[in-house]
Amino acid sequence: MRKKRVRSNSAPGTKRRRPRWPWILLPVLLAAAGFLFLEIIPRPPASRVAGLWRKRGVEKPNVILVTLDTTRADRLACYGYPRVKTPNLDAAARRGVLFEQAATAAPLTLPAHATIMTGMYPTYHGVRVNGNTALSDGQTTLAEAFAGRGYDTGAFIAAFVLDGRWGLKQGFAYYDDQFDLKKYARIDLASVQRPGNEVMDTALTWLEARKEKPFFAWIHLYDPHHPYEPPEPYGAEYGGRGQAGLYDGEIAFMDEQIGRLTGWLEKTGLDRSSVLVFVGDHGEALGSHGEGTHGYYVYDYAVRVPLIVVAPLGNLAGTRISSQVSTADIFPTILGLLGLEPPVPVQGRTLVPLMLKPSADDDVPAYSESMTPNLQFGWGALHTLRTPLFKYIEAPRAELYDLSRDPDEHDNILASAPDTARRMKAALARLMAETSLGAPTPEAANIDRETMERLTALGYIGAPVSARNASGASGPLADPKDKFEVFQKVSRAGEMAASGRYAEAAPLLESALFDDPAIPQALLLLSNCYIEMGRTDEAKARLDILLKEDPENVQALIGLANILLEEGRDEDVIALCKRALSVDERNTQALQLIAETYMGFPDMAQALPFIEKAVELQPKMDRSRLDLAVCLLGLRQYDRAEPLLRDILRDSPKFRLAHFNLGLLSEELGRLDEARAAYAREVELYPGEFKARFNLGKILFKLGDRAGSLAEMREVVKIAPKLAEGHLFLARGLLYEDAPLDELKAVVDRGLALAGTDELKAMGYFLLADVYNRRGEPDKMKEALRLANAHRAKKE
Fold first, then answer.
1. Per the omega criterion (within 30 degrees of 0), is the bond before 602 cis?
2. All structural domains of the chain with their residue ranges
């Protein structure tokens, strides 16, 4: 597979050229008189910043980025909150620069981190909600910028929602996202996580091994995310104040882990040659505006996040900056603190000038969005423009808040300040239009079919979808504020489904759909609840409702196709997927389903163009690449299949069935030792994979390891007791071991009873003839041979 290259801005080429629009960041000073457009503060010469490092004897400063998941700015002591102890973040704020008015681009983990890592708004990078879109290969990440300059790069991830398969691993030499999904019956993106002490353990081990060379490390701490379950002593210390107190306890525990990091930096002396950045990805509602957690509204409890930068440059200690900044600014700011320029144009701005010379006149507004109401529920989207003074929220019923007077955003002053609202609305529209210019096509995540199905079962969209226009086919879209109770029902039902309580989730979803009959998220989730409950006809009926309302709903088409696939209605599956492709010709789920249906016939020649197209569109998706390799194996195109399989194993050494298929290929080419090793590795990774174990047993037999072969076949019949081949090949092994004849005959009889083909029946009767011969029963032996030859003749 072709590898990406990242070059500096001065190099002859770049990874993928982004449009060099005449970039306007819409700097705004919102005063009583309205908007005044100001020039952006000029960037300091890179040589000046680099010179500051050289004075310290540092050529390549280290960088550690710590993202604080679900952390509100106003719940930290250094931001004025007295009810939680965060001594380590407080100390960082005293040593560095604290930004009082930082805004995230989205109140969800994956979109927010995509902006942090690219310096681009969601309008460009295309990751709008969790779980439906991956950061495309056309984006350039902060890790790629550092890797291109010779830095070692490592990431340490606390939750599956940021698993590398959603695209953020680009540029990282090491991406620690080792989540054991097998232990989860259902995969809820938010609940598959690990505590901060485990994340920090791994991060510090990696850092210790690299303290002699320049590194960029990203550490993700997820502890404040719901559910709030702080370990002791934090549970006892903070639990007396209910959920809000437990949330504070999680922040205090997270701060302890941060102390381990800063303590290591001081102990090693690397604090004098490193940049340390702490930033929240989004906040948490804690009941404000009726919202329990986050992801729906764009009020400040979700949007305003902490941002602290510690860099041993100049006299920065204790600096507090009140200007509006955005998490899109992280990318260029980190590079700017090293005297570097971004390798590609970005939409954020470097904050280094503000850090070196804070300016009261600086006011570049920040953009945020919540696309959950739109993409998953079919209602209006929420887009906002924020300054330190005002926030404008574009919605079916727009909102405007005076943040200086009303920080909790309860008093919508839109009617009393129409000029301000009009100017902010225009500026917001302009920013959204310009930041979406030239945006690359969103990509589906590189996840295997099983994981995709388990995510879809909880209502995750599973593939890129388009936003609904402000005015739908049946009129203007609903305002999310009017649908909040319906949203809560669907959210509670999703939590129930995540814990396997489908029978409880279904009535809640039915109630939500009674209030609003065409909610895509609810219909998809309810259909999956019905599938889990064995009510397939009702599942299909809900998907039919969704398709009647929206005939081009690709996920409903794919969902229905998956149901029909289980029913063996192959032609209908192909027809539905072709309908999906008529709407979205790049839909890899549809292409893959068609290919897999043809491969099941098997008709590899028919399958080939569809799976080739899927791989062309998503060259990183291991599932598609594996299907292509299987297809090529079936067509005996071994020269094409082998490089594909080796690429998959290079990128994903534990990808299910990749070693198995490499074993098949090696066996076909007569490379038996290689086949044995490949099958053995598959069995090691997936002990319950009976096909690999069966083939391993056959190869061991050919190689003369009769005991090893017999052991594998015994395991096969335990794992797959209804597999005729397992019993028959076990019987063959027992023949060579001179097993008791009664035991041997019983094994053969079981195999024959299960045999469904003439080939297997012929094998069974030949084995039975051998048993009768050893028992001295010639008549029975002759009859078994007659039956064996009769079935062999039928086969031929």
1. yes
2. 64-201+212-358
